[in-house]
Structure formats: C-alpha cells, structure tokens
Inverse folding.
C-alpha cells in the first residue's frame, strides 16, 4: 500500500528545485510531516576516449567547501529527455560531443529527502566542440586513465555519488566488453 499524502505545502521555490512539506499517512497508521526536495532530474556522462581515457572535471562546489572530482552532469530542462540533456551538458561542460551513447543506469542519490533521479550514460567517439560554461560554473577538464580514476576512488579522492556510480557502472560494462 505505501503511504498517502494528506496535504502538501510549498516552503521554497528555488531556481532548480522546490522544497515542499507533505503530511503523510503511513500504512502503519502513523501520520508524519516530511520535507522533500522536488527536483526535475539530471543526466551524467562517463566520457571515454578510444584508449579508455576518461574526461573528468574538477569543479568548485560551495556547499561542500571546495573543489571535487566529478563526471560531467546537469539538470534536465522542462520537457527535455535525459539523453538530450546529456548531449547538451557534455558540450557545455567539457567542450566535447559524442557519437556513441549507452545508458548505463539510473540512480536516486538521496531518497530520504529528494525525488531526484540521475540518468547515467557513457559517451564515446568524442569530438571537440565549443564549451559553454554557465557563468556560475568554475571547473577544469582533466584527462585521466580510467583505471587511474578507479584508484582515485580507492584512495578516497572521489566521493561524489553520481561519479562513483557512473565509474562503477562503466567499469561493469567495460569488463563485459559492452563498451
């Protein structure tokens, strides 16, 4: 059965997401108030060259207090498909387009308080394009051998959830010879 929403109040309408408070009746009879971030979703890409070099970004993230390693990603625009978002964001963030795309999977990064889903793709057969960073994006693009990125995970240098998931998914596909 799950839960039943009895009431919903918008607490904040942000640029990207909406914060709502829902009064929810659980199937065990308990009624609770939940604060939920409603997010349009995102797409993230694992861009790989022919020699399994990964194009990663080191981006400033104010919320966590500094620069972190990430795969390119971005928020879906209204009515935009996840693949269209991935293609747009790949060009905008790292200045490359890709001919070959595979959906690796989908993650729900913080289901305890958000409905955001991130669609993760591999992007291959890369060609240079014109980078179009948003004015609030501070990042550098780096070429890193895929296995070196895995070692960065092992050393705790990469902690971003979508990046960890994307690398893990791509590694599974690579081991199976699907990429």
């Amino acid at each position: 059965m799950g839960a039943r929403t009895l009431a919903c109040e918008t607490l904040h309408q942000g640029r990207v997401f909406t914060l709502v408070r829902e009064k929810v009746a659980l199937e065990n009879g308990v009624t609770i108030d939940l604060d939920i971030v409603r997010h349009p979703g995102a797409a993230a890409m694992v861009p790989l060259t022919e020699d399994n070099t990964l194009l990663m970004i080191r981006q400033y993230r104010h919320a966590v207090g500094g620069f972190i390693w990430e795969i390119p990603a971005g928020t879906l625009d209204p009515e935009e498909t996840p693949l269209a978002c991935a293609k747009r964001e790949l060009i905008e963030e790292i200045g490359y387009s890709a001919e070959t795309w595979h959906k690796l999977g989908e993650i729900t990064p913080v289901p305890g308080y958000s409905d955001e889903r991130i669609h993760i793709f591999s992007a291959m057969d890369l060609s240079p394009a014109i980078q179009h960073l948003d004015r609030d994006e501070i990042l550098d693009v780096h070429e890193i051998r895929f296995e070196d990125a895995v070692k960065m995970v092992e050393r705790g240098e990469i902690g971003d959830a979508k990046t960890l998931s994307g690398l893990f998914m791509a590694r599974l596909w690579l081991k199976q010879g699907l990429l």
User: Anything to note?
Assistant: The mean pLDDT is 95. The first helix runs from residue 82 to 94.
